[in-house]
């Protein structure tokens, strides 16, 4: 009988791989952080107490509530609803609807939002002083037939409307709809076509299948970029000054800074408010992603399934 003990390998003396570069990088990062903190603390020009005072002033809070928060909510509501509609039209079998949706996305994605808001605030009022709502070609028909009524139901003074917060919300919402259309289209295309076929086999029409089957599954793909767009919209509300809308966060803090010559504290105040609002939205986005990502990858539930009654085990 042969001795097999001599053929066995010896004890492996395993040692972890050393990474001295990590400690060097950590030391460099700590030094840089320390230098930044020191500059914040020792430089009196930051004037953090004054920045905190500016954050609590009534015009700033009003601009935060009206221009930033209401502006973001209203613009995203228009953008999400319009984007889903445009995405559905983009995927339609009708070439006319596909063409219209493509032109819409091409136009609003190609125009900077600052230029668009400036056009709404100044250009539209210059081109059209007022807009009449009523029967199409009602004025021409009334003039031709000699009628006293011109079939006009409502007249909008464009110069007064174009400088309001509502005009800014509509402008930002129309622009956002072009981007949301591509996000929604990507989400819809991520759902397997068999889901729509299964819905059709159950007797659902195309609209019902889209609402009840396709869109709920597409939300897993739609929610993350929509959260990013919402946070970006919070910052883009600062462009409302092009309308011009004065009840807006950045406009009010800038006005206070220019009036008091405390430019940097005003910038610190507006930066802090944007960071606070963005952080809250990031937390909400996290929970939404967990909600719609259940059953997929890292979003899968962690609880184990209950063992059936009477099932045996080892």
Brief descriptors of the model:
314 residues, mainly alpha, two-stranded antiparallel ribbon, 12 helices, flat
What does this structure look like?
With 314 residues, the protein is mainly α. Helix content is 68%, strand content 4%. The protein has twelve helices and two strands; from the N terminus they run H-H-H-H-H-E-H-E-H-H-H-H-H-H. Strands 1-2 form a two-stranded antiparallel sheet. The protein is flat and about 115 Å long. The two termini are 39 Å apart. Mean pLDDT is 83; it is low at 299-308.
Any idea what the radius of gyration is? 29 Å
The assigned structural class equals mainly alpha
Distance between the termini: 39 Å
Low-confidence stretches: 299-308
Please tell me the overall pLDDT.
83
> What helical percentage do the residues reach?
55-70%
H/E element order: HHHHHEHEHHHHHH
Shape: flat
Order of strands side by side in the largest beta sheet? 1-2
What's the total number of strands? Answer: 2
β-sheet strand percentage: under 5%
Number of helices: 12
Specify the biggest β-sheet.
Answer: 2 strands, antiparallel
Would you spell out the secondary-structure blueprint of this structure?
Layout: H1 20-42, H2 48-55, H3 58-90, H4 95-110, H5 113-127, E1 130-134, H6 138-145, E2 152-157, H7 158-161, H8 165-190, H9 193-201, H10 206-236, H11 249-260, H12 263-292
Antiparallel strand pairs: 1-2
Helix pairs in contact: 2-12, 3-4, 3-8, 3-10, 3-11, 4-8, 5-8, 8-10, 9-10, 10-12, 11-12
């Amino acid at each position: 009988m042969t001795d097999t003990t001599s053929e066995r390998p010896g004890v492996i003396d395993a040692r972890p791989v050393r990474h001295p570069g990590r400690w060097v990088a950590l030391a460099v990062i700590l030094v840089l952080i320390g230098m930044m903190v020191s500059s914040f603390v020792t430089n009196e020009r930051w004037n953090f107490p004054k920045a905190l005072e500016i954050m609590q002033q009534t015009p700033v809070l009003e601009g935060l509530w009206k221009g930033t928060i209401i502006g973001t909510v209203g613009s995203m509501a228009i953008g999400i609803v319009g984007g889903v509609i445009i995405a559905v039209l983009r995927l339609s079998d009708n070439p006319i609807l596909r063409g219209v949706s493509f032109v819409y996305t091409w136009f609003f994605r190609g125009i900077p939002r600052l230029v668009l808001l400036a056009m709404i605030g100044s250009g539209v009022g210059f081109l059209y002083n007022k807009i009449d709502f009523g029967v199409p070609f009602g004025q021409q028909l009334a003039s031709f037939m000699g009628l006293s009524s011109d079939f006009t139901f409502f007249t909008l003074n464009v110069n007064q409307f174009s400088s309001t917060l509502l005009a800014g919300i509509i402008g930002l919402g129309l622009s956002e709809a072009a981007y949301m259309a591509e996000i929604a289209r990507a989400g819809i295309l991520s759902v397997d076509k068999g889901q729509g076929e299964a819905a059709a086999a159950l007797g659902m029409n195309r609209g019902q299948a889209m609402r009840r089957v396709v869109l709920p599954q597409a939300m897993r793909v739609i929610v993350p970029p929509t959260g990013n767009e919402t946070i970006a919209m919070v910052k883009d509300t600062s462009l409302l000054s092009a309308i011009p809308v004065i009840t807006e966060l950045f406009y009010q803090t800038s006005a206070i800074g220019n009036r008091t010559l405390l430019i940097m504290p005003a910038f610190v105040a507006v930066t802090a408010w944007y960071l606070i609002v963005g952080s809250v939205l990031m937390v909400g986005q996290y929970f939404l992603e967990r909600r719609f990502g259940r059953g997929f990858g890292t979003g899968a539930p962690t609880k184990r399934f209950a063992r059936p009654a009477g099932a045996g085990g080892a």
